[in-house]
Amino acid sequence: MADRFVWFRSVSLRSLIGKSPRSVAGQVFVLQVALVVLLVACAVIALVLQSERDTDAEAKRRSIAVAQTFAHSPGVVAALQTSEPSKILQPLTEAGRKSAGVDFIVVMDTKGIRYTHPLPSRIGKRFVGTIGPSLQGKVYTESVHGPLGPEMQATVPIRNNDGKIVALVSAGLKVKNVTNQVDRQLPIILAAGAGALVVATGGTALVGRRLRRQTHSLAPEEMTRMYEHHDAVLHAVREGVLIIGDDGRLLLANDEARRLLELPPDVEGRHVWELSDLDPETVALLVSGREATDEVHFAGERLLAVNQRPTDREGGPKGTVVTLRDSTELQAVSGRAEVARERLKLLYDAGLGVGTTLDVIRTADELAQVAVPRFADFVTVDLADAVLHGEEPPGAATAMRRTAVYGVRDDHPLYEQGRLIRFLPSTPQARGYGTGKSELVTDLSTATGWHAQDPERTKAILEYGIHSLIAAPIRARGVVLGMANFYRSEQHDPFDEEEQSLAEELVARAAVSIDNARRYTREHALAVTLQRSLLPRALPEQSALDVGYRYIPAQSGVSGDWFDVIPLPGSRVALAVGDVVGHGLHAAATMGRLRTAVHNFSTLDLPPDELLSHLDDLVGRIDQDESTTEGAAGVVGATCLYAIYDPVTRRCAMARAGHLAPALVSPEGSVTFPDLPAGPPLGLGGMPFQTAELDLAEGTQLVLYTDGLIEDRRRDLDVGMELLRDALAGHPDRPPEESCQAVVEALLPGRPADDVALLIARTQGLPPERIADWDVPFDPAAVAGMRVVLSEKLDEWGLSELGFCMELVLSELITNAIRYGTEPIHVRLIHDRTLICEVSDGSSTSPHLRYAATTDEGGRGLFLVSQMTERWGTRYTAQGKVIWAEQALPEAAGKPALAPSWTDAALLGVHGAGPQAPA
């Protein structure tokens, strides 16, 4: 309905009238519109008069009804007989007037003196109007000019019980209120008239439009001339036209149709099936009456394009109109155009379908699949071995790997995929690889150079029906990467030079994708090699933790997740897990720098919070340095968790910088996530880090991981944490390696979008019998006693061979602590993979190694310690410092420890527990 309204609104008066006012359609339209306007105007006037008459009659009826109703109301006669009837009747008349919708109700005596009136000032005055007819018992209506203005009123008598007229009552309306009723109806009447005018005009327009379409807005002489021109054009066009009636008779055939179909002169009026010279399929089409568009039919030696349409679509007579076009000469051109279109479509599809991934083998498969069967029956792709590994190929075609094989059948005798083929110089493949130009072999049976490659196989290929070959080099950026070979079998004609050009274009488009995949393979291999070299290749030997780990790279390649296990003095072990945001070489290189920095800072034996503070400063300097370098990108974000576990005290100190909290698996199998203070990510600066210390029972598993393990776009972080809890819980005796595998299988069913580092360490405590500690009095004489107890403990441990060296080391360390340190002094001896001696005191003064002069009496103590032990160093605590020294065990060294002679000791300036160089 909306479409019809829009169409009707768009029709202009000019289009309805026609091109010429003298046209039949224009004259009929003007006459009809004038008649419609006149009829509508008369109808509107009649409606207005009828409305006024009806309104007046309604006003009179209402006035009479109200007056009679009040005259017969109970109590009115009784009120008239009272001494003051106005007091009783005035309220009644006002209430009745308002409820009845009239303007006044007036009660008067038989002389016309008012008892009531809407205007109280008019009470007691004579009624304006005629009361004679009413005194005679009649109902009288009239229009007067009363106190309220022009009024229409009705007067009726009031009778007592005896039927005597005792008073009169008059009710009515002001004339202006009656007129208002008419005025309110007038818009409706006018709107109805306008609507009738629009509808009538629209109907007239439709009639005029149809008439105009049938007469084409032409005058009689113009219509005559039009038909003359129609006949002239119909017989002059170079396209055959036939008009066939509903009964199958040929009503019209122009000159071109007669020529194309070789029709006889008296063909018009005859049935189509009587034309025996026409092709049967053409006759069947003309008789059927169905629609046809560019259907090809033969007429003798001509090839005709036939179009057929019905003639009754616009209300015309039933039948069909047929147009015939000679397309004999265009058929060959259209065939070549179709071939060109198919080739362009092939190139277009190759642009979309080849190179969807950065995988060399997959890209080669896509090249082979896009060409079969639209261009070739079989396609093979041979690439140099170096290309498959991301390298540039050698210049000579010594060997190529068959990377892809695809064909219309699978039982072909061509070389199988994966085979290394060494092409002879006489083959088209070797020539094309060497020259960089494609080779066309239209008949393989005569190609002797190709036969020499493998006579038995070439014979099988020819017997299979393969007869034509195009060998096109895969050339990109001036380098030939391999060869693409297109074969055709007996189902198709041999390749020609145009198809050779198409093959070159097809391979050229694929070559860029293969080269991109090769470059990506090389860069990816370099990045993976770099990342693998930056991650731990093997975990160090230590006794404090049983460690298992997993590193899973992301789908997009290398990233910045890392982990580390670092042995520390005193049998302690540091665990580190970090994550550098981003992917690629920059993230991997940044990860390597951070891991190296953690190793360097750990040699200082810093607490976790201090180590993270130094690491935070380092990342800030990296960002500052790289922000000044053009094209360099800073560290977008980096997190780290650093923990130190002491197997002697079974305490673990840890701090984190923007990293996820670790998980703890108790020896009973329950899983908790400790409330570890969360520091800011590395590089932000300004915020201190906090260290938390936890007491871990022996057998507790400490689980460190990066966010790629639990975070995923398909699940919330809380869900990942619960999955991790479920994977760890209930298996307290499971080895860390098996726990790592179970966690990976539960949380990472496929290749993750982000790389993952997972480190699970089960704590182990040193047995108390392998630890000895003593408090040392702040007196140089106590050194001798400590030598004795040390010797006894070494004999108990079966390490008597180390007694001389360790007594000497202990003497030097205690002497330095007494001379240059403060109380309290404490000695601890640890029997682990090495023998560790620790001397602590309350001073924070750091000792240092120096070379004493020949004339110096002291200063050789620490030098002696460094010569007698594997390692030594200093670490600071909240109570002071600890100087430690490690001595390899005899079984670890592979031979007994050799004690220096007293002569050597004397040369070093050692005299028992004598004073040493100041720290």
UniProtKB/TrEMBL annotation:
- Does S-adenosyl-L-methionine appear among the keywords? no
- Residues passing through the membrane, by range: 29-49, 186-207
Q: Which Pfam family is one of those matched by this entry?
A: HATPase_c_2
The source's superkingdom equals Bacteria
- Residues of the PAS domain: 228-295
* InterPro entries according to UniProt: Bact_Sigma-Reg, GAF, GAF-like_dom_sf, HATPase_C_sf, HATPase_dom, PAS, PAS-like_dom_sf, PAS_4
Q: What is its main location?
A: membrane
Keywords noted in UniProt: ATP-binding, Cell membrane, Hydrolase, Kinase, Membrane, Nucleotide-binding, Phosphoprotein, Transferase, Transmembrane, Transmembrane helix, Two-component regulatory system
Q: SMART domains, from UniProt?
A: GAF, PAS, PP2C_SIG
Question: Where is this gene product found?
Answer: Cell membrane
Entry keyword Repeat: no
The annotated topology with respect to the bilayer is:
Multi-pass membrane protein
Residue ranges constituting the PPM-type phosphatase domain according to the UniProt record: 545-763
Residues annotated as domain GAF? 349-524
Please give the name of this protein: SpoIIE family protein phosphatase
Source organism of the structure: Streptomyces caeni
